[in-house]
Structure formats: structure tokens, C-alpha cells
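Look at one such:
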Amino acid sequence: MNARSLTHLARTVGWGAVAMIASAGVAFACEKGSQTDIAFWNSIKDSKSRAEIQAYLDTCPSGTFVALARIRLRGLGGGGSAPPRRTTNAQPQGGLNDPTTISRVQNILFNLNYSVKRFDGQFDKSTRDALRDWQRTTKQPATGRLSQANFNRLQRARIPKVWGALAYNAKGASGVVWKEGDRRTAMNKALSACKRRSKKNRRCNVLTAANDACGALAFYFNKTSSNTYFGSYAAIRPTLGQAITSSLQSCAKSPRSGNKCGIRITFCANGSHKN
């Protein structure tokens, strides 16, 4: 991403949103010396906005120009951080209902492998459901409401660095990838492969696995004298054995499967299924 396109993105969604999207690993990664690192800094190095300088620090915490950014920020009346660490009682800028705060929560939940459908700061049903699922997973009251403690804990969450994805449709078209660096890339690659193999542009579903989690796709094709039936059932579980068992059980529940369920695909996010 060059400086012009990065600046255009920032003008469209705001520098704060750019920082949050990048730090959550959705739009792009900012490695030291990368084009993103250099383009981002060149886009804001002469800015007199504390928010823009802080956006660089938040997005590129190990970037080439971190030291300069901190100096610039101090000159503008801010201390600078990379990334900022909030104390337990710290309030996010704009409050918990601020779209910027909600957008960050949406991106973090997405990159923790929860189902989030939008990232625009609007607290919709998918965001509420994803937050509620995360609360259950982390053994908190599943209120679906964002508290200060929730926000602080999400800020500290460790985003997985290894991802796999399985895309499939009912007729058996599929695509699978593993050992990808972020969830979005894994999803897009799997969906692209599935769509290429799908006739009549049939819609593909996609499931993602992180770290050492695994997935399996069960499929049946049952042809009788008068009809042909088929179906696909996928599952993601902590182990490959559990994923296989779960997908086969789901398949077997179909009254049309005729006990002809079999495993078509297995994978683990870290590639351990190849061992």
C-alpha cells in the first residue's frame, strides 16, 4: 500500500480507524521497514494532529520511525506510546459507546475467531452475539453488553498468528488452506478456491481455525431409484479427531444421508494434519 492509497483510506475512515484495523490484523500488517511502515510515516510525519501521530505508533509499534513519532507527539503535547497501555480504570476515548471503540472491539473479536459481520462501529446483533460468545468462552456473565472490564480485557487479548480455513457448499465444492498469518487471508483464499470449483456460482460457507485447532468436512451422496441427495457438514474442534467425529455426527442426522456419510477433507490450522 503506497502513501497515496494509505492517505485515501485514512481520509475515508479516519486515522483512528486505520490504526485499529491494522493493529487487529485485518487490513494490512506494519512491519519495520515495510512499504506500509514507510508510507504511513510519510503520510503523517508533518502532521500537527496528535491523533495521526498516535495512529502511527498504534499501528506500527516496532516501526522504523517510532522514536521520531514519540518526539513529535511530545512536541504536540502528548507522551506517545507504542501501543498505548491502559490502566484498569482508564476510559477509552469517546466512551464505550463511541463508534471508534466499538469498531476496535469488532476487529478484535473477529481476529479472536468470533463471528462479526461489520466493522463500522455500529453495535449490531452480530457484534452483540460475538461479544456474548466471547464472554462465555472467558467465563464471564454473557450479557452481550460491553463493560469497561470487557474492553480492557479485549485490549490485552492475544491475536492468533496461525490460521486455517475451510470453505464448502452443499454439493461438495470446497477449498481449504492452513498456516496462514491472519484470519482474513485464510478466509479469502479458502472461499476463492471453493468458488472456483463451484458450479453456477453456488454460495460457499466458510469456517476458520486458529493455532492448533482442526477442521473436517463430511459429505454424503445418496442416489435412489428416483432421487439424488447430497449434503456437506463441517466442524472446527480443538483436535482433528473431535472435528471428524462432530462432522460425521452432523451428517448422520440427515434423514437423506442413507448412512453414506464420509470424510472428504481434514486439516489443522498449523498444518499438523500433514504429520
Notes: The beta strands are 163-168, 174-180, 205-210, 214-223, 228-237, 262-268. The chain has a mean pLDDT of 82.
